């Protein structure tokens, strides 16, 4: 098991945001986290990458417990987090953004190899390598954010809202890239606003509601689930 | 027609003012700390150079070999073990810590060196270049060259090296920087260390140029704030030009209105820019 989360509880002050969340992601798997705004999807990703301290429960990466580690140590172990809103370094060039992606010692050893992979995945980034990141289009910035995450040589890639505000053609290109990322044996856990899109692109999905996992299973199973059909696909079974 | 000398002297002095402001700007840009002790840290280097010069006969510029690593280490430790604890609480907490350090250092200077005014008077202090039309004190030229060299070196470090890029990344987006594996505590400490290296260089140049006493740190801080306000935060070229504008304004107004009016003109300029263009002439934000 690449990543497994057992009974995770997270609170902001006195407000409980995640309750007893249990999930797992295996090597080369693409797993979606779905649910309404405020269900706790981004909170879960922030807890995995070390920005939030869990109240209880465990987060295990290849059997190693992550609690108490700082974000930079978690990157070094092999979990990359591509944040919501892309958050590329705005004043740096595309190339410098990518080089900084390989900041950890482990990643620096495979810098050349990963850079070739990223440029192969998103040739647009290679064309614009000397451009300042803030001058890129939204889609290109998203590619850069994913590329920067891949430069850290991860085994688990966490993606938060990759398609937010992007044109459908760009969104498709990004999801196509996810398939190639999976072929490298990288496990992907992504958060997506569109449930329909998530269930098309992932292997499995977890449905979060008010901080709890209320449904999980393969996307085929979830698509057939009446409540999901009704709520997200707009079809009512008679 | 005015003589060209005051303009040139002001510009040369402005280079030094820019170096003085550089550390303040770097610490604010990366850590978001308003380091009100910056002037006192600069003065600390001045007094250390004074001690080495007076008691051991070490030339001030030669003493940089010792002061640069010492001040780097000092800055590293102050950030890593002092400011980092308070930054987690709030920016105000760090400001108060800086203010406390300023008071401690000022009083330490009083005790160690007495309130008397001192100077770094070297054999070359009184030499000057006489180019017919213009007349330049040798120390002003040295100040400018040292400052320019330090700024070019810092610019190269920030834009070319991996660590320098990491510092810029952390100043642009701290969370994203942690997401690529940057240990921000180390990067912060290194940044503070570098700011103190620029403070050491500025301190020595200021000591060679002006007399100083335990309260001089406050004047240094005010000049540094003035440069940052005129030039704007975030760009090295802005800091440099801000320094030059302030230097020229000071020296030229002293020439025209008498030395009593020089700081009045400088402060009026600073207030005017704050009112009309609060992000500074060359600031991006």
Please identify the structural class of chain A as seen in this structure: alpha/beta
Judged by helices, strands and strand pairing, the structural class of chain B is mainly alpha
Taking the sheet with the most strands of chain A, its summary is:
6 strands, mixed
Sum up the overall morphology of chain A in one term.
globular
Cα-atom Rg of chain A, whole angstroms? Answer: 18 Å
Q: What are the low-pLDDT stretches of chain B, counting only 5+ consecutive residues below 50?
A: none
Global mean pLDDT of chain A: 93
Distance between the terminal alpha carbons of chain B, to the nearest Å? 38 Å
Folded structure, characterized:
The complex is a heterodimer of chains A (238) and B (285). Chain A has 238 residues and is of the alpha/beta class. Chain A has a single domain, classed as Rossmann fold (3-Layer(aba) Sandwich). Helix content of chain A is 39%, strand content 26%. Chain A has eleven helices and ten strands. Chain A has helices at 41-48, 71-77, 94-101, 105-109, 111-121, 123-127, 138-150, 168-183, 195-201, 219-224, 226-232, and strands at 3-12, 15-25, 30-34, 56-61, 64-65, 79-82, 156-160, 187-191, 204-209, 212-218. In chain A, the strands form two sheets. Chain A has a six-stranded mixed beta sheet with strand order 6-7-8-3-9-10, with helices on both faces. In chain A, strands 2-1-4-5 form a four-stranded antiparallel beta sheet, covered by helices on one side. In chain A, β7 (156-160), α8 and β8 (187-191) form a beta-alpha-beta unit. In chain A, α3 (94-101) runs parallel beside α7. Chain A is globular and about 50 Å long. In chain A, 46% of the residues are buried. Chain B has 285 residues and is mainly alpha-helical. Chain B has one domain (5-115, 137-276). Chain B has eleven helices and two strands. In chain B, strands 1-2 form a two-stranded antiparallel ribbon. In chain B, a hairpin with a 2-residue loop joins β1 (128-131) and β2 (134-137). In chain B, α3 packs antiparallel against α8 and α6 (162-172) packs across α8 (184-209). Classes of the chains: A alpha/beta (238), B mainly alpha (285). The A-B interface holds A 49, 51, 70-72, 75-76, 80-83, 87-92, 96, 99-104, 107, 148-149, 151-152 and B 162, 165-166, 168-169, 172-173, 175-184.
């Amino acid at each position: 098991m690449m990543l497994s989360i057992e009974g995770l509880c997270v609170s902001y002050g006195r407000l409980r945001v995640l309750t007893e969340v249990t999930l797992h992601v295996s090597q080369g798997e693409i797993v979606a986290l779905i649910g309404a705004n405020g269900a706790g999807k981004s909170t879960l990703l922030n807890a995995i990458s070390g920005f939030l301290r869990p109240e209880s429960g465990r987060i295990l990466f290849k059997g190693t417990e992550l609690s108490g580690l700082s974000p930079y140590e978690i990157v070094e172990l092999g979990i990359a987090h591509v944040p919501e809103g892309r958050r590329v370094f705005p004043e740096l060039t595309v190339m410098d953004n990518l080089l900084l992606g390989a900041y950890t010692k482990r990643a620096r050893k495979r810098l050349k190899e990963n850079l070739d992979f990223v440029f192969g995945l998103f040739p647009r980034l290679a064309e614009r390598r000397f451009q300042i990141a803030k001058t890129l289009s939204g889609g290109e910035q998203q590619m850069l954010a994913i590329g920067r995450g891949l430069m850290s040589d991860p085994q688990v890639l966490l993606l938060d809202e990759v398609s937010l505000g992007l044109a459908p053609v760009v969104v498709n290109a990004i999801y196509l890239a996810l398939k190639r990322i999976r072929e490298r044996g990288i496990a992907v856990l992504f958060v997506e606003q569109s449930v329909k899109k998530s269930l098309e692109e992932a292997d499995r999905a977890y449905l979060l509601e008010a901080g709890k996992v209320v449904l999980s299973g393969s996307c085929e199973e979830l698509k057939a689930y009446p409540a999901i059909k009704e709520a997200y696909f707009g079809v009512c079974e008679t | 027609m005015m003589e060209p000398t005051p303009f040139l002297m002001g510009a040369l002095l402005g280079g030094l003012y820019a170096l003085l402001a550089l550390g303040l700007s770097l610490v604010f840009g990366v850590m978001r700390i308003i380091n009100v002790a910056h002037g006192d840290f600069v003065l600390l280097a001045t007094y250390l150079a004074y001690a080495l010069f007076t008691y051991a006969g070490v030339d001030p510029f030669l003493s940089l070999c010792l002061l640069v690593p010492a001040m780097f280490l000092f800055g590293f430790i102050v950030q890593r073990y002092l400011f980092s604890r308070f930054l987690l609480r709030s920016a105000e907490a760090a400001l108060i810590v800086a203010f406390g350090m300023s008071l401690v250092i000022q009083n330490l200077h009083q005790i160690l060196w007495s309130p008397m005014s001192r100077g770094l008077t070297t054999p070359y202090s009184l030499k000057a270049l006489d180019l017919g039309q213009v007349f330049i004190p040798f120390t002003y030229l040295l100040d400018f060259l040292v400052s320019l060299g330090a700024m070019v070196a810092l610019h190269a470090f920030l834009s070319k090296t991996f660590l320098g890029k990491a510092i810029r990344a952390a100043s642009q987006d701290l969370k994203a920087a942690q997401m690529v594996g940057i240990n921000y505590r180390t990067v912060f400490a290194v940044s503070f260390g570098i700011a103190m290296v620029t403070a050491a260089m500025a301190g020595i140049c200021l000591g060679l140029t002006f007399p100083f006493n335990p309260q001089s740190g406050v004047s240094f801080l005010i000049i540094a704030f003035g440069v940052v306000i005129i030039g704007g935060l975030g760009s090295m070229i802005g800091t440099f030009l801000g320094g030059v504008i302030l230097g020229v304004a000071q020296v030229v107004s002293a020439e025209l209105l008498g030395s009593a009016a020089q700081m009045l003109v400088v402060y009026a300029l600073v207030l005017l820019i704050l009112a009309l263009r609060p992000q500074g002439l060359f600031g991006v934000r």
